[in-house]
Structure formats: structure tokens, C-alpha cells
Amino acid sequence: MPGVSDSVWREQDTTPGAIEAALRQLLKERHAENASYVPARVLNLVCVVDREWSGEIANRLRGVGRFHASRTVVCAVDPKRTTIDATASIAADSEPSDDHLALTRETVIVDVGPQHLEHLDTIVDPLVVTDLATVVWSPHGHEQALEALLRLSQVVLLDSIDEPNPADAVRRARRLSDSVYVVDLAWLRSTPWRERIAATFDPAALRPDLRRISAITVRHHADSTVAAMLLIGWLASRLDWRCEPLIAEGNMRRGSAEARRHRVKICLEPEPDQQVRGLAGLTLETSSGRWLSLERGPGGLQARYRNKAKGAEREWTVLGASRGEPGILGEGIRQALLRDPTYAPALEACQTMLEHSGAPA
Amino acid sequence: MTTPDAEAPEHDNPLTEGLERLPVHNTTLVIFGATGDLSKRKLLPALYNLAHEGALPERFHLIGVSRSDMPHGDFREMAQDAIREFSRREPDAKVLEELLNEARYIPGSFDDESIYGELTKTLEEFDQAAGGPLNRAFYLSTAPSFFPVIVGALGREGLHRHPDSEVRVIIEKPFGTTLAEAQELNAEVLGVFEERQVFRIDHYLGKETVQNMLAFRFANGLFEPVWNRNYIDNVQITAAEDIGIGSRAGYYDSAGALRDLVQNHMLQLLTLLCMEPPVDFSADEVRDEKVKVLHAIPAPTAEAVSQMAVRAQYAEGVSAGEDAPGYLQESDVPADSNTETYAALRLSVQNWRWAGVPFYLRTGKRLARKVTEIAVTLKPVPHLAFQSEGSVGVKPNQLILTMQPNEGVSISLGAKIPGTRMSIRPVNMEFLYGTAFMSQSPEAYERLIMDAMRGDATLFTRNDEVEAQWRICDPIVSTWAQQPGPLPQYEAGTQGPEEADQLLQDGHRWRAI
């Protein structure tokens, strides 16, 4: 007999049908207990993780703040397992009151073995809420499982900086983009920087300088080359630059892109002092003599601006709080409901920069 | 002659596509009344949250102007304390420090011309530090009597224009307390600023659920076919509060329920409910359609007011299990006050779509519970074949749009009671916003401040709109002012005065609060 309690159900050697029935029963019981318990219905998140590291993933998911998926299905892969065990639970953020409903979210942890991965979709399909977007996140690889789950998912969440080789990361993201919408945490790490570059050139008087960008250097955490490349890929795709392969010079990558009437120098520079993953800073120069640098700093980005023609120089802080790693993951889950048409072209530009680049793997 | 090498002008910024947060041009925001309650509770926390999210312009400066005499440092401390107390999120110490560390404060009376000279000097310093002219936004968060004073002084000081940048003025409610005052204030404001520079706040329009009415109506094909007099029987708009006036006697006793909520917020809800689809969602297209609705509502004659409007005051009672004082026993309320704490109206929108459909509006303090909602009742089916089968409480379909406390949409439908007989009873199909979106809604003021800095006036009230609102409410205000008290009373914690039932036509009943 399944052990149904107030909010947790567990069963060993179970089936997807039994898990789904248990979830329905749990929801019914919660509603009967108090009608103000209302299930959130935003999206399904299916995570495929190594059993050994499932605790770490659970911690990361706990840190996403309000951006929880409404139903999370964690498939924990245990190399020695042959049967399916499952735990289903329903949790509410708060107790309901006269004025406030209590939103509930479901979590299902399914322990599976390697032999389940090829057809993991047949196990997960009954467990996701129909008609909600389904996001798949497979942070520990498990390509076979990911392939199987593509059939029932609309979005794949990945972090391209997890791949040791940037060229592989970009290739993989592009391949996945052909069949589903990809939310890449490496791309989201560059969002505040993209917003700031866009804002810098937004005043009508400065907009012509977009076509005069002559050099860009992006500084990044040693593991975050792809995040830096995506930023340059974004500029290239938005400004119609023709990218060329970058050349490795020590830890750096250098190269250029062909803009309408001039070349743009490109440099990616690892920043050894940067503790957190993502970007550390950038410097933009224009042929009209403007120079802008943005550096990560406390309370926001530290901006420095020079206009060589006028001899002007200024410094200021662009306000904004750091989102931290949990914030980035939460943002990734939120972005699964949106569509950013500029990621795929940026990715394509990245692939060109990485082709035969001779860069370190 | 243009040479082939000449740069093609960049009309749009190609970098903004795909960005959720669009750039806002560098701005200095001046808050008049910066030490006041609204500033502390809403404006400063809204600015902090925008800063936290990286949504403020790259160069942003804050200047507070108020009567309290204090140095810049004390103002920054006061602002920090207010943000810590009222922000919807725990402030990040560094962001908070960066937001306020260059904030300036100018003490003085708003009618003292010297503060405007000081203001000009400070604005120019910020421009100089930025290396060019920053946009300027003047937020008038003061007593309404100061609106014309400040606007006039800004004009005399030449602060209403700034070469190569935009100057905007944001004006809090109430925008006049009568039609004549609203017209006079409009004339004074528009004597200095152009209409495109003026942003009249109705913070209701900044609420996500109010904006969602537009999405609900114009992004769904399901409702439009029945959204007219042929299918809709009546509409009730309710804005009920379970609390009393608290410490707001000074303001409330001079305003009353009609001015406080009906003239602005509730008429906004009514126009969004009734407007025709705009050609697009630009500020003027949307506001043109809203104004047409207001023009279709006939202003009552003095004789008709008693037939279409009811007012009342709350008396002692029990609210949430506790004894609650009556309005006249509240501190600082004059014992002979004739100010209404409850107002109900019956309006008609005389156009092709809505002719003959009564719109019932009611608002009040110390009612049974807090709720803001619109109930659209459809006409009954022409023949109900189930009546002899033991059906229970069969009633026409109702569509309920709830703004608070649980934002959502519900539809009441008739459904068969399980069993062998064909018995029908009403059931609810309910959609709750909180269940379908992960994001925490930003505070209305965050959205409105951003829109004003970006120059998007869609969610602000235009001059003709505010006058059209007053044209409807003014005869009621003036008629009530001439009628002696005492006002009808309703017990605190109840549904409101029985007198409100007199407004209902054709067997209609007020929906339970």
C-alpha cells in the first residue's frame, strides 16, 4: 500500500501510474484540509541528476526564491539501481489565512537506474502537469535522458559554462536550439551587461557610435569564456558584424570582426581574481574617440567613460544588486516562460568565432 | 549631398531587441514633499527596488525638496530608514548606499522662490557631472494646494524646459476637488508645461491586475462577443475596505468616499471595462477610447442625484470581532461632519454597446471585508427547463474580476448536481493570478515612476480625462454639499447602508461583499 500522509508519499519499486495517482490524492487531501491551499500552475521542471549529487541540486533549487517551478520532477540516476523508487511531496510557502491563499508546489523525486534513461520520457510523461510548459535541466550530462525528454519538453535549461570546451558548449546549445527553446544561464549572466551597453548607446546623439565600435575587450571568470563570447556574439549579431575565428594567445583569445566599413578588435581575457562565475568587466572603444569600461563592483557596475576628442573623463556606479548563483538559476526558470529572439543569432556568431580557432580546449 | 560613405541614421536602437528592461534616459528626479508620508512609504522604496533590479537609468540623481529643515545627510538617513521599513524586499546595503550617497536635499517652503534658484543650481551641478543635460522629472507629492504654486515657480525659474533633454512633471492625486478646480489646475499646469510633459498619477493604473483588464478583454476572443448590452444585464464595481479612516481624518474628512475613490480609481475601472478596442496601445489611442466612455456617461442633474447616488457614514459596530468606533467618534473628525464614508452610484453608459446596462459603483470604509472587484452579470437564459427538478439557486452567469485581495478571474456557471435528477446549481470556475505567474508584481509606483521617466503616458490620466471624470462627479459633490446632515448610517463591519438598495433596478441585488 502506498504510504500517503498529509503531504508526503513514498513507495519503493513503484510505477509512474502509482506516483501520478499519489500526487492526485495528495492534492485532494490538501484541498480538503483547507480550500485556501491552491496549487501553483506555472511550469514543470524535470531535472536529471546524479543520485550522488542530488542534495547539491536540491540546495540550488531551494535558493531560487520565488521562481520555483510549480511541479518539479527530479530523476536521480543511481548506477546500481534497477527498480524505481519515488517520493512525492506537496509544500506550501505559507499557511493560508482569511486574506491570503497558500500556494502549493509539488516535488517528485524518482530514483532510476541507467537502463531507464533511454525511455525516461515514458516515466516522466505521466508526472508532469498537462498543458504547462515543461523545462528539462540535466546539469550532470545524461545526454541519453535529455534526448528522450525532448519529446515532452518545450524548453531546455543549460549552463554553457559547465562544458569544459567552449566549442562543444556552443555546438550543443545550437543543436538543442533546433528542436526546443534553450535558456542558457551563461547568456543570462550577460544580461545586465547587455542592458548597460544598450542604454549607453540609446540617446539619439550616441546611436551613430554603435557603428563606430572599434574594439571590445571582455574580462571573465576563468571558467566563463562562453558567457563572454555570447556577449560579443550578441553585439556582432545585432550590429551585423562578420565574425572571424579567434586566436588563442596564452589564456586570452583575440581576433576581429568585420563591421560595415571597419574592423572591430575583439579580446577575451580571463580575470584570475574573479571569484564568481560570469563576467568581470568590459571595455568598449569607438573610432570617434569614446571609451567606456564597466567593472563588476559593490552595489552595481563601476562605469568609467572617456571622450578623447573632448578630453572628458567620468566615473560613476550603475546601480544594481548581484543576483548570485541561485538568482541566476531562478532567472533561468523564469525565462523559460519568455522568449528572447537574440540568443540564437548570438550563439551562431559564437560558433563562427570558435571555428578552427586553435583556442585551448 | 549624401555620399555613399555617410552613416545611415540609426532610427532604432538595435541592441534593445529581446531586452526585458528598456533603457531609460539619464534623469534627475526631484521629489517635492520628499519627507512626506507618500514619499516614505511608496516613492523612496519604489526607487530602491528599481535600483536593486538595475532598472534605473545609468545616471540617476535624486533631489528632495520639503519644508523640514535638515542637511543632506539627515535626508539620506531618513530615506534609508524609510526604504528599510517599507521596501518590498530587504535592501542590499551597497545598492542603498550608492542610490542615496549623492542625493541632495533642499529645505524650504514651496512658495519661497529662493528654493527654485537652489534647485536650478543643484540640477546644473548634476548635468555638469554627467557631461551633458540630464532629463528632469519633477514629482509633486505635496498637498494639492501646492501644485499650482510649484508649477508656476518652475515656469518662472525656466525649469519647465531644458535644451536637448526632456522635462516632465508628475502630479499626485487629487487633481482638483471639483470640476472647476480641476479645470483651473489644468489651465495653470498647461500654462507652463505641454500636455505631453504632464503625468497625472492614478496609482490604480499601475497595478498589474488593473492593466490585465486590457489583456483580458483584448487578448481573448471568448468574451468580446458577449461584451455588450445584448448579453450583459448589469455591472457592479466594488471597492470595499474593512478598516476605518485611521489617522487620515485630516485628509479624509475634506475628501470623502466619492472624491477618494470613485472620481478616479473606480471610474478608471469602469472605462477599462467599457472602452472600445484601441487601434494600438499607445498612450493617446488608449486614452482616447477611455475618454469616449466618460463622455457617454451623462452627468446627473441636481434633481437626479438622489435617484442615482447614495452616501452614508459608518456607525459603531463590530469589525473583525472587535468593537469599532463610528466615523464621528474617530479622532480629529468633527462631531457634525457630513463627510461620506460610503458612496454608491448607478451610472449608465449611453452608447451603442452599453445603452440600458446599469453600472453600480460602491465604495466604503468599515465594510464587512476588504475587496475590490468587478462583477459582470450576464442576462439569464431565455428558458430554464430544469426548475421542477430541484435545482438550487440557479442564477445567470457572472464573471468576476478581482483586484484584491486574491487577484483573479472567476466565472459562475450552472452545473448538474450529481444524482438521478437533472438538478442544477451554480459552481465557480476560478483562475488566480498567483498560481500562474512566478514573478512578484512590482509595486504600482515602480511601474509608474519608470513610465514617467521613459515618457510613456499610457497609464496616466490626461487633462480631458480628468475633467470628464469630474463632469460626472461634480454635480453629486455639489448637491451633497448643499444637503444638510445627518447622513444615513451603517453599522461598522456590515454590507453598507440599506439606502444603497434604492439604486438597484429590475430586481438586481448587491453582490455580498
SSE blueprint:
The complex is a heterodimer of chains A (361) and B (513).
Chain A: E1 3-4, E2 8-11, H1 16-33, E3 37-39, E4 43-50, H2 54-62, E5 71-77, E6 85-92, E7 102-112, H3 120-124, E8 133-137, H4 143-149, E9 155-158, H5 166-177, E10 181-184, H6 185-188, H7 191-200, E11 213-220, H8 225-238, E12 242-243, E13 247-249, E14 252-258, E15 263-270, E16 279-286, E17 290-297, E18 300-307, E19 312-319, H9 324-335, H10 343-354
Parallel strand pairs in A: 3-7, 4-5, 4-8, 5-7, 8-9, 9-10, 11-15
Antiparallel strand pairs in A: 1-2, 2-6, 6-7, 11-16, 12-14, 13-14, 14-15, 16-17, 17-18, 18-19
Helix pairs in contact in A: 5-10, 8-10
Chain B: E1 27-32, H1 37-52, E2 60-66, H2 72-86, H3 93-100, E3 104-107, H4 114-130, E4 135-140, H5 147-156, E5 167-171, H6 179-190, E6 198-200, H7 208-218, E7 232-240, H8 249-274, H9 283-295, H10 305-308, E8 309-315, E9 317-319, E10 322-324, E11 342-348, E12 358-364, E13 371-378, E14 398-404, E15 408-416, E16 424-432, H11 433-436, H12 444-454, H13 463-482, E17 489-491
Parallel strand pairs in B: 1-2, 1-4, 2-3, 4-5, 5-6, 7-12, 8-17
Antiparallel strand pairs in B: 7-13, 8-11, 9-10, 11-12, 13-14, 14-15, 15-16
